[in-house]
Every structure is written in C-alpha cells, then in structure tokens.
Amino acid sequence: MKESKPAISFALHGLPISGGIAIGQAHLVSQATLEVSRLTIAPRMVEKEVTRFETAMTNVRAELGAIKNNLENSPAEMRAFIHVHCMIIEDPELSKATRQIIREQRCNAEWALVQQMNLLVEQFDRIDDAYLRERGHDIRQAVERVVRELAGHPASRKSIKGENLIVVAHDLSPADMMTFKNMNVVSFVTDVGATTSHTAILARGMDIPTVLGLHNARQLIRDKETLIVDGTRGVLIVNPDPRIIEEYELRKTQFELERSKLKLLKTTHATTLDKIKIDLLANIEVPEDVTTVLESGAEGVGLFRTEFIFLGRGDMPSEDEQFEAYRKTAKNMEGRPVVIRTFDLGNDKVLHVDEAHSDRRRENPALGLRSVRLSLAEPKIFLAQLRAILRASKFGKVKILVPMFSHAFQVDQTLALLEQAKSSLRGEKIAFDEDIEIGGMIEVPAAALAIGMFLRRLDFLSIGTNDLIQYTLAINRADEQVANLYDPLHPAVLMLLSHIISSAEKAGVPISMCGEMAGDPNFTRLLLGLGLRQFSMFPARIPAVKQRIKQSDISEIEPLARRIARLDEPAKIAEQVEKLNATQQ
Ligand code: PEP
Ligand code: MG
Description:
Layout: E1 10-13, E2 15-18, E3 21-28, H1 46-69, H2 76-90, H3 92-105, H4 109-125, H5 130-150, E4 165-169, H6 174-180, E5 185-190, H7 198-206, E6 210-212, H8 217-220, E7 226-230, E8 235-238, H9 242-263, E9 279-284, H10 290-296, E10 301-305, H11 319-332, E11 337-341, H12 347-351, H13 372-377, H14 379-392, E12 397-402, H15 408-427, E13 437-442, H16 445-449, H17 452-457, E14 460-463, H18 465-472, H19 491-507, E15 511-513, H20 521-529, E16 534-537, H21 542-550, H22 554-566, H23 570-582
Parallel strand pairs: 3-4, 4-5, 5-6, 9-10, 9-16, 10-11, 11-12, 12-13, 13-14, 14-15
Antiparallel strand pairs: 1-8, 2-6, 3-7, 7-8
Helix pairs in contact: 1-2, 1-3, 1-5, 2-5, 2-7, 3-4, 4-5, 11-14, 14-15, 19-22, 20-21, 20-22, 22-23
The site of phosphoenolpyruvate has 10 residues, from strand 10 and helix 18.
C-alpha cells in the first residue's frame, strides 16, 4: 500500500487585522487576474465586442444588486462597501470610456476596461490620505468582477462545502466577502492588503479573525489543508501538529470567553472606579453605519467622515443629496449627538469635480490644498455642505466639525460662511438649529501649540491623532517605508496631547479625540490621566475601551500619566505606560 507523506508544517507572518483564533480547513479562492492580453478585433466585430462588454456590466450590476438586497442583517461597513462597488459599476464614465477605447482601438473589452481602470486608479494612488487612496483598490476589485464575468467565471459562489472554512486568497473584495457570509467561513487570510483597506475594515466589522499581507500564502497553501489563524498576532500556521492544535483550541476558548464577557458591557456606562463618567462615541463613514453604532452601545457619533459617502462618483454631491444623508443619520441616532465633519478632501479628489483645479496639484499634497483649506477655496461647495448640515440639524442633535485648522482666520472665514448659510436659510424660511455647535479638529502641531486662538473661537475641539502624529513626526502616514516611525508615544506627541487637553480643560471647552489612538485600550489610561473624557472610535473598539475605563481609578492614574507626558526618554515612557496599564486590573 502506498503511504501518504505527512504534510509539512510551517508558519507565516502577516498583518494582524482582526483578533481571535480560527482553526479550520483552507478554502482556496481562485486568483482573479487583471493581467489581460490585448486582442485586436476585426472592424465588423467591434460592435459585438461592445455588446459583450455591456452584457457583462449588466450581469455584474444585477449580481451586486442582488447582494445589496440581501444585506439587511450584515454589518453596516459591508453595506457601505457594496454600495461603493455598485456606484463604481454604475458610473456612466467607466462604461463610456471603455466603449470608446473598444471602438477607437479595436480591442477586446477586458483590455479596454483594464486601461480605463488603470487611469482611475492612478488618480487615487496620488491621494496622500491612506484611507482615500484605498478607494482606488475598490475600483480594482469592482473591475475584477467584470473581467471575471467577461472570462466566463462569474464571481458569485453559489455555495462552498465544508466546516470551519478559512478563505485563502490573493486578494478579496468586500463583495467577495459578502458571498462567503453564511458559508461556515471562520477566517480570512490574503497575500495583499493594508490596515486601512476595505477588506481589513470589513473583517473587523464582521469580527472574524483575519491576517492580511501574507505575501505568498495563496501559492504555498493547498486546498483543504488544516490551518490555524491567530488574528491577534498576525500568524498563520499551516498543517499544525495535534499538540499545537490542542494549544490553540485552548487559546480560542479563552478568547471567546473574554469576548462574550465584553459584550455584556454594551448596556453599561463607561464610568471609572472613582465614578467619573466618560463619553464613548463612534466614528462612521456612511449613514448605514448607524446600525452598528447603536449595537455597539456608543452614545453618539463623534466623527462622521462625510467625504466617504460620495466617493467613487465623478461629481460633487448636491446640497439635497447631502441633506438626505445627514438627515437620515441624525434621525436614526434618535437625539444622540452626531458630529458631522465637513469634507476632508485632498487636492486630487477635486480633480474629479472641476477640471479647472488641475493646475493646483502639487508634489506634496499632505501639505497642500486639502481639507478646510480646500473648502475655503471653494466657498460654493463649502456653503452647500454647511446648508445641508444646518437643514439636517432639525432632525437630531447635530454638531459641525471642521478638519485641519491651522490659522485663526480660517475659523473666522468658516464662521462667516456659517452665518451666511444660516441667513440664507432664514430668508428661505427653512428651519435649523440656531444654536448649532461648531468645533474644530486639532491635527496640525501649530494648532496644538497655539490652541488658545481656537479655544476662543469654537464651541468644542476634537483631536485627530492620525494627522497630528503624521505632521509632528514629519512622516507620511500612508507610506509603509516610514511606518515604523509612526509612534503615538513619541515624547513630542505626548507633550502636545497633554498641552491640548489641559488648555481645553482650563478654558472650559469640551475636547474629544477621534483619531485611532482613542480606540486603542493600551492608551486609554494614559489619556484618562491626561484629562480626556470623550473618546470617539470604530464601533467594534468600544467594548474593550469601556472595560479599561471601568477598571481605572482616575485619581490614582493621573499623577503617573502627567509624569509620563513630561518624560523625554522613549524607553522610560514605554516602561511607565506599561506600569500604568498593569495596575488596577
Ligand atoms: C485624524 O487625523 O486623526 C482623523 C480622525 O481624521 P482622518 O483619519 O480622517 O484624517
Ligand atoms: Mg485627519
């Protein structure tokens, strides 16, 4: 009898995206390729090729439409991303340009479509914001569906068999992830992907152990091999021996026990041991996120990144469209605060809206015409957004947040525009909240240091640590090559945070934090000790941060936290933060 060789066991390391342990069977997803060849089409066949392209687009639209209609009980992120893919596929520009390429160059539909996709993706690649740049990735994924359809391999997977399936792919689109839902999928691992990619955000929203960026896992793993995924550490073990499986079964049980304990916190208040009440709010991108926000037990929306709703389309949203999105969010939050941030768009994004901007593009867009600078340079667009937010303020507790202030005159100009928006609405007899609060984000070191001029002019402030760290340490937050320099515990960052929070406290101006730092329980005590009382984060992070708050006594941690913010020796800071986190467990 032929003896079968024992499978070789090995481990791969990638990016820990969504925590937890999964043990199961590999399910390999065929590698969709966008490397299509160029074929020349005979003149009489050109119109047939156009029809073939249009049929594929219609099929993909129908497929995405069907997925969208089945999303009722899915995470809000999922609905949002499918929505983005639908918008990309429905964008008339994509079809129009592809048809034109087929006709003018007499080439096959796949090739024409990929050419047009490359053009669009290039525009997104130039955006300095990692989050927005990832949207170029959405275009790639949406186009991939059409290419698969053209090749006769539609993306939909009717069903896959087996228990505890671990999806192994080169890359996964949100729509792909959707088709795996309800199919005994317990984990996702992919070769590519970054922390801010949609796949990563979705995996976190679905709360499924996920490791991305494994480079060549798809090539090394065979179908049905046994895998262990440690989403917390970013480790994938292929063909583990029985003792390792036993060890991980134990870790899995412990993790699940811990998570179910955390879920019990949903209805409890985030109050410290010394009875100080902390506000935990959620960051959202689209109105549909509200479902997840309410499920998480958040007390409101602390950051609504409005630019995200309108991505993937070729024009700027009208005031009415914006009003509808803001109204829906405010209404569904049922009186809880909703902080709507005005557009935080980069220079490149505006290229879509108005060709006239093309001469404004610069080499260093992070320091260029982005965010409030762009809004003030486009008063018509800014005014429309302010009017839309004001109109929505009648339907809930809405506040306005303006990103990236660095100069006092920017606040003055914004307040003047707000006044103009209000008086135009009064003239039209449209109701709005006359006392609507307006706040500013502190995410530029200059604004942090000269905070007084913002405290005097605004109703509240919110610290954007993602950009504040980027600008303080002079590192592009989207550049992997300098990612190791991105350090929230750098002494300069801590000095700025301490200065911002204590100045706001003294001035009696409410201050919150909505950057990633607010959602990391490792920083919760430090921030509490520095005086922060409002945190806004991705909804899934709320339970862990709440637990940390409930185990903390501010009167005890305050002296140590303040001492840490005065240290300028990194090793000492790390040691003291560890000490701070170790007490009162
Ligand atoms: C930040 O900079 O911390 C922030 C919350 O804004 P964004 O991540 O959207 O730039
Ligand atoms: Mg920012």
